[in-house]
Amino acid sequence: MSCLFCEIVEGSIPSTAVYQDEQCYAFADIHPQAPEHVLITPREHIGSLADCIEGDHALLGHLLWTAAQIAHAKGLTNGYRVVVNAGEDGGQTVDHLHVHLLGGRPLTWPPG
Ligand code: 5GP
Ligand code: ZN
Fold first, then answer.
1. Which of 10, 25, 26, 40 is least crowded, fewest Cβ atoms below 10 Å from its Cβ?
2. In what order do the strands lie in the sheet with 17-20?
């Protein structure tokens, strides 16, 4: 099965790395929606938040923790947003779980 973000994690498709460790890979979004737009994705293939199992608790916590660490490292002291789109109604377009970190400008609410 071919998966865009698996290929990005493996390095066969280039990306701009922001952070990586044994569990996750974070990289710049190709179509940034804010001055800072980073995607944090698990190295293992998980299709969606909706596909997570109980054993993924720690990994999910790690993804959020990593988003907060990146926000801190990027100096987003005025705030930022963390988003997970899940499934068709959630607007998910790449079927490999990822957390969006958006910051660097005021973000409006509610989302579209
Ligand atoms: P989703 O809509 O699934 O929540 O988010 C997918 C994100 O992946 C989008 O923000 C989109 O811009 C980004 N994206 C899609 N293809 C690529 C790519 O080839 N490289 C990078 N860096 N980001 C991508
Ligand atoms: Zn994948």
1. 10
2. 17-20, 24-28, 36-42, 99-103, 80-83
**pLDDT value of position 112:** 87
pLDDT of 87 > 90? The answer is yes
Which pLDDT band holds residue 1 (cuts at 50, 70, 90)? confident
Q: Which CATH number is associated with domain 4-103?
A: 3.30.428.10
Ligand 1 pocket check for 41: Cβ under 6 Å:
no
Q: Where are the domains of the chain?
A: 4-103
H/E stretch holding 58 reads: helix 57-73
